[in-house]
Each structure stands twice: as C-alpha cells, then as structure tokens.
Amino acid sequence: METPSLDNQLVANKPQHKVLPKKVLAQRAFFIIVGSILMGIGIEEFLVPNQVLDGGIVGISIILSHLLHFKLGYFIFLLNIPFFYIGYKQIGKTFAFSTLLGITVLSITTIMLHDVPVFTNDLLLATVFGGIILGFGVGIVLRFGGSLDGTEILALLFSKKLPFSVGEIIMFFNVFIFICAGFVFSWNRAMYSLIAYFIAFKVIDIVIAGLDESKSVWIISDNSDIIGETIIARLGRGVTYLKGEGAYTGDNKKVIFCVINRLEEAKLKTIVEELDPAAFLAVANIAEVRGGRFKKKDIH
User: Fold this and answer.
1) Residue 168 Rama label (left phi>0; alpha psi -120 to 50; beta)
2) Between these two residues, 199 and 262, which has the higher pLDDT value?
3) CA–CA separation, 255 vs 219, rounded Å?
4) What residues pair up with 255 in beta bridges, in sequence order?
5) Crossing angle of helices 72-90/93-113, nearest 10°?
6) Are 94 and 20 in contact (CB under 8 A)?
7) Is the CB of residue 59 less than 8 Å from the CB of residue 174?
8) CA–CA separation, 182 vs 191, rounded Å?
9) If DSSP codes are grouped into helix, strand and coil, which group holds residue 32?
10) What order do you get walking across the sheet with 252-261 strand by strand?
11) Cβ distance 96 to 88 under 8 Å?
12) pLDDT tens, 124-158?
C-alpha cells in the first residue's frame, strides 16, 4: 500500500478558504455601498466646494482635480487602480473586491454630485459636518471589510522595508498632502483640512469600535471570592477566576477577570474599594467582544 507523501498530507490538512454565505456577502455589499455614498456626500457637498481636503489618495485626487479641471471621481478611481491588485496579493480576494466596490461607488457618487448645489458655504460648518459624514462613511466601509483609500495598503508595503509603523507612514503621507494643499489652495484651507481630517479620524474610531465601549477588568485580592460574587450580584456580569502566583512573595493568588461596559466602571471600582481597599485593579479598553457570556444578566 502506498503511503501518502508529507507534501500530500500537508495539502490535505491545509485549511480551505471558507466561502461566505450569500446573506453575509449581500449585507457587506449593502453597507459598503452606503458608506461609500456617505463619503461621497461629505467630500463633494461639504469639503471640495469649500477647498477643504481629505487625506490619502482622495486628497491627492482633490488637488489634481483642482489643477487639471477634471471631475474628482475619475482621479479617485484611476489612482486607486494599482491598489486593487496590491490588496488582492497582500490581503486577499474578498478585501480587494470589497475595496473595488467601495471605490467604484465613491467615484460615481462624486461625479453625480459634482453639479448639485452644496449644503453650506460656511467654511467652519462645511469642515465639521464634512468631516463627520466622511468619517461615518469610511468607518462603515472599514467595519464591513472594505477600504476607500489605497494609502493603508501602500503604508503596509513600505512598513516592511522602512523602520516606521503603518500609522507613522500614513501620517507622513498625509502631512505631505496637506503641505501641498497649502501651496495649491491656501494655508488657511490646509489648516481647515487638518481639522476635517482629525474629526473624520475620531468618527471612524467611534463607528468601528461602537459607542458601547467595553472594558476588561483584572482584580487581584485576598477577598477574590466575595468580590466575584458581589460583581455577579450587583452588576449582573459573569466573572472568571484565574490562578496566579506572586513573583516576589511566591504566594498563590486568585485573579478575577471580567468584562464590563464603561457605564459600569465606577460601580465596579466602588465594589472593590468597599470589599478590599488594598486590592490590585487594572482596567483596559476592548475594541470588540464576541462569544462567551458577556451578555448582561438580570440583577435581582
């Protein structure tokens, strides 16, 4: 009997790519389209008419559109074409097609809105609301697996060859764009562009992380049992006991781990303070929580 070779065994055991259900793909496509339209509205109805820029490839597209007098959507699509291929090779087919969908819808939206009357000519209002709408749109697209700008992909490639992180490379790239905006438009507009970019950046964080921010809590105490029981009774949150050992004393410790939301943080600190003022307490933000028994129980 022929024994399968090691290579054949590895191929047989290799995890297969799982095709997403059509319902999930349809939901993803829907939200990417909605997010792309929102970004197009923020750019074409608020920022561009008031000569305020976004960062990344879109920012370069706005500058080129102003200098060459072609519609913005054409530049957004053409400049992002190389990144579809790079994204396909570096991240995956699903990401590349999601990005292609988002960029296509964004480009079409900006072209269609080019001659539509703007919402406001007030520079401050346009900067603030343009940044909010743009950030909300980008956040939705990122949350559902797409991208609306090739800057992140470019930064990912450069970070492998340069001693800088992806975030630092994106920052350098955008600083360069805003400096160019100062020469092309005015330094006043460049500073407003920075404000719009900062607002959009914060809104993206809110959309991706969600408003119901979760926190992880670690408690080390000699009264772990009573603290854990009280958290369950008064907060309705489950707790997990972990075994720990003090590096200095060598004593065995029972460590409490639990997940709460930000509204419950003050009450949890009060519980720990009441039961053991000397307890060690560490609280950290969590971007996402799935599975387990995180759902809050009823408090009786």
Assistant:
1) alpha
2) 199
3) 6
4) 220, 242
5) 180
6) yes
7) yes
8) 8
9) helix
10) 240-245, 252-261, 214-220, 280-286
11) yes
12) 999 999 999 998 998 888 888 777 877 777 776 77
